[in-house]
Write a structure and sequence with these properties.
Blueprint (H helix, E strand, L loop, with lengths): L9 E10 L6 E11 L4 E5 L6 H8 L7 E6 L2 E2 L5 H11 E5 L10 H6 L11 H11 L15 H13 L5 E5 L7 H18 L2 E5 L3 H4 L4 E6 L2 E6 L19
Parallel strand pairs: 3-8, 3-9, 6-7, 7-8
Antiparallel strand pairs: 1-2, 1-4, 4-5, 9-10
Helix pairs in contact: 4-5, 5-6
Length: 249
């Protein structure tokens, strides 16, 4: 028998997020519905204040919607308690931020190890973190603290930390926003390569059209509403899949 296609890892249904503002709530997101397929790279674009980062926080189970639903791998997040949400964030979702969010007092290796200490692979934390640092080209920086690393190196550590638990989905909020153009290209090449190896689903917030072109599809938000979805571009996310990772920035 022909196997059935895998279910979409991410489904958004009528998603709304409102915040109190005096007597009148502010609708940050308004009735969004879309799905993202296994291994797809989607760029979230739109002007400042359009709700991109708010949406990413909802997709990452860091916030709760006012209405609607986020379904990850067939599980509606609103049906999960805090402990189950924490497990899902730790095991199924990797998150990368623009400002890296590394722990200043820890070495690169210790930062990458950290998510493993609250999961089932605690005994393997040092080995897995070491292997992940090697994969992102930073084996020789394992004992360096964040202030001893360049911006590109810090983002590589952040990517290693996000992926060390082997999640199925990577969420990235402007991951190249603080980097120069060459380092940005190197980081995007790294994400593309890791995506290919692991069949990662990637959702990336960006203001940069050049970054958005690396994605398979673009979801454009305006004033919290889904304005448009762009078809795959010729640049595509395959760019850089075979890039040489031996010389990190």
């Amino acid at each position: 028998m022909t196997p059935e296609p895998a279910a979409p890892p991410l489904v958004v249904r009528d998603l709304t997020r409102s915040l109190p503002f005096g007597d009148t709530p502010v609708h940050v997101l308004q009735g969004l519905s879309f799905q993202i397929d296994v291994g797809e790279w989607v760029a979230l674009t739109g002007p400042s204040g359009s709700g991109k980062s708010t949406l990413l926080g909802l997709l990452g189970a860091l916030d709760q919607p006012s209405a609607g639903s986020v379904v990850i791998d067939g599980t509606p997040l609103e049906k999960l308690g805090e402990a189950a949400l924490a497990r899902l964030r730790n095991r199924r979702i990797g998150i990368v931020f623009q400002d890296f969010n590394l722990i200043a007092s820890l070495t690169a290796l210790e930062n990458v190890e950290a998510p493993l200490y609250v999961g089932p692979r605690r005994r393997d934390a040092r080995r897995l973190a070491t292997e992940m640092l090697q994969r992102v080209g930073l084996a020789d920086r394992a004992r360096h603290r964040p202030h001893q690393l360049s911006g590109g190196q810090r983002q590589r550590v952040a990517i290693a930390r996000a992926l060390v638990t082997e999640p199925t989905m990577l969420l990235a909020d402007e991951p190249t926003g603080n980097l120069d153009s060459q380092t940005s290209a190197d980081i995007l090449d790294l994400i593309a390569s890791l995506r290919r190896e692991r069949t990662l689903t990637v959702v990336m917030v960006t203001h940069d059209p050049a970054v958005a072109q690396r994605a398979d599809r673009t979801i454009h938000l305006v004033d919290g509403k889904l304005q448009a979805e762009a078809a795959p571009t010729t640049a595509g996310s395959s760019t850089g899949d075979t890039a040489d990772m031996s010389a990190p920035q």
